[in-house]
Amino acid sequence: MRSLYRNLVGLIGFFLLWEGAVRVGLVPELFVPPPSEVLATTVGLLGQEPFIRDVIATVLAWAIALLISVAIAVPAGLLLGSVPWLRNATRVIVEFLRPIPSVALIPLVLLVVGGGPEAKITLAVYAAVWPILFNTIYALSEIDPVLMDTARACGTSRGRMLTSVALPHAAPFVFTGVRMSAAIALILVVSTEYVAGAASGLGNFILEASSGGSNMDEVLAGTVVAGLIGYLINDGLERIGKRAFRWNEVAGEAAK
Amino acid sequence: MTQVTERATRLRSQAVAGLSGFARTWLVFIGAVVVWEVATRLAESVFFPPPTEIVSTALQLWFSGPASQLFLSDVVFDHILPSLGRCLAGWAIAVILGVGLGTALGRSRTGMDYVGPLFAFFRAIPPPTLVPVFMVLFGLGPGMQVATIIFGAIWPVLLNTVDGVRAVDSVKVDTARSFRTPTPYWIGMVVLPAALPKIFAGLRLSLSISLILMVVSELIGSLNGIGHELISAQRAFEFPLMWTWIVLLGILGFGLNSLLLAAERRVLRWQPNRNNDG
Amino acid sequence: MPTMLEVTGLNHRYGSGDGAHVAVKDLSFSVDAGQLACIVGPSGCGKSTLLRCIAGLIPPTDGSVSLHGDAVNGVPDDLAVVFQDYSRSLFPWLTVARNVEFPLRWRKLGKQERAERAQEALDAVGLSGVGRKFPWQLSGGMQQRVSIARALASKPALLIMDEPFASVDAQTRFELEDLLRRVQREQRTTILLVTHDIDESVYLGDRVLVLSKSPATIVADLPVDLPADRDQIATRESAKFVALRGEVARLLQTVPAKQAAPEQQADEDVATADAAEWTATEEAATENAGSAKETSH
């Protein structure tokens, strides 16, 4: 109860500080409107159909990208994680591809797949595949050998070992990867919309609002909504993870 | 005496194993490049120039300078170094702020209660959406870019530091208290070292975020820098040129990450399991 | 011998009102300088609370502690504690030598002097050559020696040891016991050692303080009149030792002692010790539940 009260004090304190800084003139109001105005704009925008459509476009692209990433990275991770020579052979390529900042590919992707929703989905997938892939490989390498030996001693077949021993063990790690990827995918979707000027989406909304220069309240409202979406996604996944993997204490510890 | 020889043999066998691993690594890499070369030559797509062409463009672009500049061309000084400088400056500031604030908040019992939800929200904001705000505040230029990088890179460091600082083992707390450890020694020799593994996990993430935001901020609002050159090359349909910048970003990402990993391995060499996985 | 530690009317309660758990009740005793006093009591009887009060890590609810005449108010300047769990008490990021130097860091000592004192302490516990290793590279017994060296390096007026040998194997335990007695006699350190092991308390101590089960009160204060030079085999076989350990064991029993043959007696001791442990864990559990409730509102 007391911590909830402190949470509120912190949030309200931040808004008051911001409001005060603008009112006193520390920050020019034209550039950074006070929170009261931003909140009013946010509420107003949430009642407007075009804005809602932008939000939906962004969330939809994010969801598709995350699904595709999971569909690619989990099987790939299981394969690389259980076949050592394949993992060794591909390690170099993976190690060289991963650090390429995904946004560096924006110009290329725009050329190849055009400016439609495919572009942001492609880029988000490229960025979101890695955490899931690495956490899956890591999970398989971390399986307790005793567990595997026990299963083998019980005469479990290779296929059944994967489904009944390896997968349940890997699940919490994979889920941690999905959580990291979810955040990255959202950043990429919004960034691509913003940089490339997609037909619709939150990033595009912010781009258009900022190009006039005088609609900073709308820019910030868009930012607040983007932040809220990100917060809800992260919080939701965290809750799901806690419910699904109650039996596993290391869930969330597989940062790699 | 025998110990010395044993050690030498072990070192040698390690070196051989390392060398063959190293050779295999590069063989696979070269193989991949050859496949890439053949595939692009067969496909003949303008968007995908063969790697040899990318390399020759890159050599021409970066190493055509006079001897007085160590043969580095002006491009290096006008675009690459400023980009790197902004990226590292933003990251460094984010790290200092993140570790400092994170330590203070982690030590305080109620601090995170006040700012926790606020920070969780800030972290969830995709940093590029704040570019317009920083742009009006700092104008087109390094200020805006560094601010964007700091805003994006600080959260993983800060939140991981809070976690690490909070998780100091209770027996170590009692031990330090029983020696009446003064605060500076308590923070410097107990709290921070205990939190370091967590902090490093945050540093790695924030470094890759810094690089991403460096590129994004340059794609949007910059007069120079790698991102600016990248988007200009695309707009001018100079695809090999565009590819050299993409490759450079890959190399930078790989290099910076490797440097950080090397530093981590050195700093955390006291961890027992660290010596097994080399 | 002057008095080093004086504990008067010590009380400690966790929580308040009906849910309060009394861990230590009206406890008074004193330890002379240069003495090795053992406190023995059943597990979970409040020994750790008592130690934490004496070390100044927690303020007692009531009563006073004084060290060489100065009232203890917070951790005193010249005190050191050796904890049971050496692997958690040593700092894994510091080498062995740096761990031992740790308490000297903020003293006005030259770097050279600091290193010398650390080396002396390591020599005293028989760990001369391992200064540059990290704690995890040593065996458990060696790690506990490092924490003893660290405590000695600060030259404490009082060394408090909380079940220091409970986490090492029996063989190492004998070695460490002899090491502790030797070092204590060489350096004339005043030591207050807590253990649940009756034999250990008699073998190590110049004096054994027997605690009752929770809440902890002193049941008896027995002088140990064994020769100063002790031997793991001969001393433990001596009639005096057997008589003393029998006496302590009887005192620790909650049920009135029956007349029994020595061998049967030993079996019964184990049984009662187990029973005491059971009740103690139960109490500890309720104590935890109580404190959990407390934090939730």
UniProtKB/TrEMBL annotation, chain A:
It comes from the Bacteria. One of its GO terms (biological process) is transmembrane transport. Pfam families: BPD_transp_1 (PF00528). GO terms for cellular component: plasma membrane. Gene3D superfamilies: MetI-like. Its main location: membrane. It is found in: Cell membrane. The keyword Transmembrane helix applies. Keywords: Cell membrane, Membrane, Transmembrane, Transmembrane helix, Transport. It is a multi-pass membrane protein. The chain crosses the membrane at residues 55-80, 92-115, 121-140, 183-207, 219-237. Residues 55-237 form the ABC transmembrane type-1 domain. Belongs to the binding-protein-dependent transport system permease family. This is ABC transporter permease. It comes from Prauserella cavernicola.
TrEMBL record, chain C:
Residues 256-297 are annotated as: Disordered. Pfam families: ABC_tran. One of its GO terms (molecular function) is ATP hydrolysis activity. Keywords: ATP-binding, Nucleotide-binding, Transport. It comes from the Bacteria. This is ABC transporter ATP-binding protein. PANTHER family: ALIPHATIC SULFONATES IMPORT ATP-BINDING PROTEIN SSUB (PTHR42788:SF13), TAURINE IMPORT ATP-BINDING PROTEIN-RELATED (PTHR42788). Coiled coil: none annotated. Residues 272-289 have a biased composition (Low complexity). Residues 5-238 form the ABC transporter domain.
